[in-house]
Write a structure and sequence with these properties.
The chain folds into two domains: about 90 residues, Phosphorylase Kinase, domain 1 (2-Layer Sandwich); about 230 residues, Aminoglycoside phosphotransferase (APH), C-terminal lobe (Aminoglycoside 3'-phosphotransferase, Chain: A, domain 2, Alpha-Beta Complex). Helix content is about 45%, strand content about 10%. Helix 7 packs across helix 8. The chain is built from ten helices and nine strands. It is α+β, with helices and mostly antiparallel strands and about 350 residues long. The longest helix has 28 residues.
């Protein structure tokens, strides 16, 4: 994990920005590290004139700072609650942001509260579905999809499990990936956050949800974000309940997205394939975070993600050959190696 020092100019920059905006004069404390995330961004809390702010150090060499500001504007215009930006230095990667506190949606979710919270979250997605896609430059296209899925072989299979697939095995993976790609690309497009889950939704006092970490947003498949929410990599719900939520969301999209004549069965097929693509990608992403970035905590999340993969493959293997072949290869070749890993737990 990076242990780079705090840039010496970060605090002076933040204080100058606060003075210019009239929101503060002198600091009550120095910068205090709040957290990092899966990227190279780091967040610091700054208390100034009795009010708390977040100062982000987001290296421009690796972080999408221009995209963050642009998508922030798009979401704000759509009525989505996002953290206020008080100042931004794109070239240096410095951001002065509203302090949302430390309460993400994850610890607030339980069997009694989840319906109400997910209704609020789906309300955000409905607002995002109204965004004019002409205001969003990036698209969830073949190139992006292929890059995401390539992480699975490179970082999870070869990197973490130390297994090199043969040419015939890579062909199985390729056919499977093509089916997922076809499913994704045939869907109507909306603004897609691409990481819409319980850790990227913050709860304000009063219960309002605020969206964070949106710099990777693109034009993409209508089921992507709802699949990210309902098949969250950090919390899991019974499949029948997930399907009921997904179909309720489909009905809520009426008039916002053209789903004319689309059956519930087809929507759930899109939804499941989209979630499966995301989980296969996440296996590679979490492995990369550990192997490349030294962030070992993500290994603890792999068993839940694998549970989703096994569940969905099991449901579709009997219906589609590409799923069946991939499922058989996964079970016979990868599962025994996964069972030997220190982070693996019995399913």
């Amino acid at each position: 994990m990076s242990s780079r020092p705090i840039p010496s100019e970060l605090l002076p920059w933040a204080l100058t920005a606060l003075q210019r905006s009239g929101t503060g004069e002198s600091p009550d404390s120095a910068l205090t590290l709040v957290t990092g995330d899966a990227s190279n961004r780091r967040y610091f809390r700054l208390v100034c004139a009795g009010k708390s702010y977040i100062v982000a150090d987001a290296p421009p060499e690796t972080e999408k700072n221009s995209e963050f500001v642009a998508i922030h504007r798009v979401l704000s215009n759509a009525g989505v609650r996002v953290p206020q930006i008080f100042a931004a230095d794109i070239d240096r990667g410095y951001l002065l942001l509203e302090d949302l506190g430390d309460h993400s949606l994850l610890p607030a979710l339980n069997e009694h509260s989840v319906d109400a919270w997910y209704q609020k979250a789906q309300g955000i997605l409905r607002k995002m579905a109204t965004v004019d896609l002409g205001s969003v430059d990036a698209a969830y296209d073949h190139a992006l999809f292929s890059e995401e899925l390539s992480r699975f072989c490179e970082w999870f299979v070869t990197g973490l499990l130390k297994y090199t697939p043969s040419d015939s095995e890579r062909e199985i993976i390729s056919r499977f990936s093509s089916v997922l790609l076809e499913s994704a690309l045939e869907q109507p497009q909306v603004l897609v956050h691409r990481d819409f889950h319980c850790r990227n939704l913050m709860i304000l006092e009063g219960g309002e949800l605020v969206v964070i970490d949106f710099q990777d947003a693109v034009r993409g498949p209508v089921t992507y974000d709802i699949a990210s929410l309902l098949k969250d990599c950090y919390i899991r719900w019974p499949q029948p309940q997930v399907e009921a939520w997904a179909l309720a969301y489909k009905r809520q999209l009426d008039g916002l997205v053209d789903l004319q004549g689309l059956s519930d069965e087809k929507f759930l097929r899109w939804f499941d394939a989209m979630a499966l693509q995301r989980h296969i990608k996440v296996l590679g992403t979490f492995a990369r975070l550990y192997l490349r970035d030294g962030k070992a905590s993500y290994l603890a999340d792999l068993p839940m993600v694998l549970g989703y993969v096994h569940e969905t493959l099991g449901r579709y293997a009997a219906r589609e050959a590409a799923f069946a072949d991939f499922s058989e290869w996964f079970a016979e070749t990868l599962a025994p190696r996964i069972a030997l890993q220190s982070w693996s737990v019995p399913s």
